[in-house]
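dude i think i finally got it to work??
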Amino acid sequence: MAAAPTFSASGTPSFCAPAKIRILLVPAAPLEQAEFERWSSVVRAYEHIPLTDVPRSRPPPRAPVYEQSEVHLSFVTTHDSASTYLAPFQLHHVVHGVLGLATRTTALERVPPMLSEAYPHAFAHRVWAFDVRKARENGDMAMEHDDGVDDAFEPQSDVCRAREPGVHVVPAVRRDAQDVRWYVRQLLADMIGSLLDQLDHYVAHLDELETPRETLRGAAPPPPPAPSEMRLVPRKSTVATASKIFGLKKSSVETPAPSLRVVKVKADAAMMSGYLWDALELYDSILTHTGRERALAGGHDAVWFAGALEGWAVTRVILSRMGGEAVAQAPCLLYPLTPGKDKDTHDPTPEPLAWRDVAEAYALALAIYRQCLAPPHVQLEALRSMTNETSRDYTPPYVYASACLQYARFLLALFASGGWNADAHDQLMYGGDPPALDTGVPLTFSEQAHLAAVSGIYRHEIAAAASAALTPSLPLLVPTEQLRILAPLHRICTLLSYTRLAAHIGRVLGTVVCSMLTRTLRTRSIAPHVAWDSVRDMLRWHTHTTTMPRADAVPTGVFASANPALVLGIAACDAYGIDILASPLVHVPPTHILEIARQRVCAYAYTDMLTSALGDEGRRWLPRLSDSAAVAYRPRAPFGWHDLQVQLLQDLIVQCEALDEPLGQVFFAALLLRHTRPTAAILDGLRHALPRAQTYAPHVQLRYWGPPDLLRSMQWHAGRVHVSLCNPWPIPLPLYDVHAVGAGLDVSTPAVQAVVPPHCLHTLQLHVVPQAAGTWHLRGVRVRLWGAEAHTLHIHKSSAPIRCVAGLLGRPGAQLVQWIIQARVRDLSQALERPPASLACALGAPRAPCHIRLPTSVVLLLDGASEHVRVALHNPSDAPMDVPCSVDDGQPLPHREASEIELYEHEWLALHEPVATIHPTRVSVAPHATAYADVHVRGRTGCDWVRLHAGSEVATLPLCVEPSVMTSDLRVERISDASAQRLFAALQAPAPQPGPYVLVSFHARNVSTSSLRVCIDAGVRLERTLPSGESARMAWPMAPMTLTHADLLRPIPALCERQYVVPKTTLSDAAKAQFWVREALWQRVRATWTSAEAHGDVHLRALWPSDAHVPLLVAPRVHVDVHMDTAAAADSVVRPTIRVRGLEGAQCVRVRIEPRLGTDAPRMHAMAPEGAWDMTWSPLASPELEWTTSVCFLSEGPWLVSAYAHVIWPNATEPHLYASTAVQVDVT
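look at this
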């Protein structure tokens, strides 16, 4: 007997599955999984039984086919009742027999009725109890196995006995298991004979029934009584029983002609029974040309016609496998739909070309199935309400998908076996993966071409047949049926080296698996405690273990060790060009499914290419390449599927989160960090998932996930390493334990922490304390990112630019081979351990560090106040010391999106109002003496510390800054000359030149805990005392400032040398005007506050003038005047005259007039009867303009009439606004 393929719980898929009797193996009593598997393997060893050994009530006729024929069996340990609706259309989808296995021989009489109740669709229910209690003198099989050969076995007729109907006790005493095998073979033959008799008994009476018009749904055959059990069951009518089994109804006609469906069911039963010639004759009577045309048109019984084609193809394959007289004398061997078959005499197709008839039959069946396949909306609505009176047939989606896979398996067997030969026949019968393709490495192009040449089948034909199963109806199937379609489809595409198609199917399959596992987790979380007190409970749950954990005892990550969704995700990552050779994590447990799957996928993808590049030792180098940091951080060319890669990794992260698998979340999130720019959302997810993952893998960490070019330059100066770090990402990059690394001397490198702002070039100073004088070679900087292991950054020599590649050369494996070739070294270890470039640094004799002594532990300040702190520097050495001193306030640099104005403000504060300064910046300290440096500290809200650097020593001075005066609501309004004169007199200040004047004011609030006196110095002095919590409006008059148009359009300057990139954005003219007006205003105005204990400055730079304030604060170069009478009558027309002066060089001018009554909108209750509200001049003939218009006031009251000039100057993008003084008109 040929060796069976690897066992699958749902049966090994094969092309000849429709001809196999399906038997379900279940534990008849509580068994450990290993024990159940042990006895199941004994039963599964018999995949077929000769027909002559099967005891039948009606023996087969004498013919060569029946002497050579076999009954084929398929043993399963799981069954999904969702497919029972396919009976009797496809009998092989249901369970035909149930066999319970046990090792105890008592209390089993109730098990067969329980099996019949639990599996009512089966024809036979048996229980076999293996008696392992007695040990014979020649060994005890129940205790151990032995490969030795014992004496010949002589069966005893009274040993294997049936204590109760359906229960048989099998002695299991011999070490070589000959007794068990002999009894199992006899009992299995008896069970199959009884099962087939029951099937024939009911099928024989189908002639008295009439089939319905539609695909039979819910036709669940009840368990027929065995001959030995007829006395236990009330006798029923044969016709009534058959109608219940097959979902048929009794015909009103006494002897109706057998319908196509009845004949098809009989043919299927004959094929399963081993009566192949009878099956051929029955199929041949169905497959007519008239039926073919009707089926292709989607007519009555079209789906059953296609099913008959499938049955004929399987029968033809089995006959070809048998060969000899069985196929030579077979009737109806010619393809039934051969053109002219009924009129002409045709010889059967030569046996070497018989596969063409099978292929033609299956192709026609697929065409009919496809023609009758209902669209999704029909399957959701009409198919569910289908009755016997429905007008037409529809193909169930699962049937069509299964047929596509069957056809693909047929072509795959021919392709892998090199044609129609014995290997192909065995492959079609037993199924599994073809050995020629399942070698662990993908086929080369030459191997694929050779197989296609000798078989006549091309791999794209196989892939096309398999891909046809991916219909829009597939997601409508239940998850178990989707798995039975997607899993073999993924395997076929993998064997054919269709990597991308396999990756796509793997993603869909992973989603289905993830949904099933998630549903299982939720079910377990709410399911009650499972009691194993009875056999009925064990059969209901159908598990092989004797205990099941309580719902509250199910650990998190219960599927971590056997999660197929993670394996499919790893395979999809490799197909999508995501490099998984170098794991993004370190210290992953080698027993975790992720690590096992990653190693297997890498071995499959890289071994062949490494062997071609490195010879026979390529396989040995794979583990070392996987662990090498040089491989992990090597430059990679983009694969080209960036959006698809990101979407895939995000989907896998979501799946791992749904399955409560934190280590998988961290793994795929780390891959996402490697292949895209990190975001705050990714890092937040890692911060939640990594601690949970470390509960199962305590030492797991991320590899370095920062920018590959973070380190830009290293310089050595005066005992310090000046490091330039560039962060190209949109998020801040915190660095921990940053210190210099090198070789040559024993040095101490104190570690520091830093945060590199987004899109900025940041400079750090790293101290190096030598232990002896000499030359130290600086090699890099060691940093540690959050959650990652420490990593050393090096300055690499400039290399050739990375060339973008596409297609097969863009795969990670191909890029790795190219990297190895470009290394140009005979020994690969030189490329993996190549030392980086170093910088020679001269170090002097070691000295004791300078000690910093702070006079206070914390400095208490109000916002805007200043204080001097005297810092003591002590020299404990015997030599004088020249100590460089500096301070750092830790204020962050502006972000990348900062405008030029924000950058200017940051530089102005650092230059004119720094938080801390130190004097002197270099202090000479005598041996064993103390010197002092003064630190000037300015209080600023948000600054909590000042760091002092004295040589290699660092001290932190904490600050406690409380708010003082808050300012807001800047207002600017025009006032009359008389009002301005009165205000200047009240403030005891001389008035400037004659008007116009403006009143500037802002809101000040004392938010401190003490009373403050606020003083404004703006040419006039204004003082107000503000108690704690009180506020006041500070207002003072002033004359407009003199600023030309060119002054308002100047670019924003840079006050210092910048280490960050200024965005290339263009500010509007209005924004520039506001900036320069603010600068000119606060240069003339200074605000201070004073308390009983301290004094300080009030920050006014946060107050910005608006667009409307700009023309009021700037003395107009252009003067706009309105001349009209100050009294007018309502409903009368007045003629104001507007004069505009100072327009030298202007390109365009638009003048408008706005009369306003009280608080109403401009020009409301007024009209321009003879003119317009505005007028435009372009170009200008004179620097002065005069325009007379007409205005009619429709309402009485005090009116204010103003005029505005919109002037466009050269090189300006927006018009500049100039306003006149409003003229009051009393309308009566």
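The mean pLDDT is 79.
im so relieved honestly
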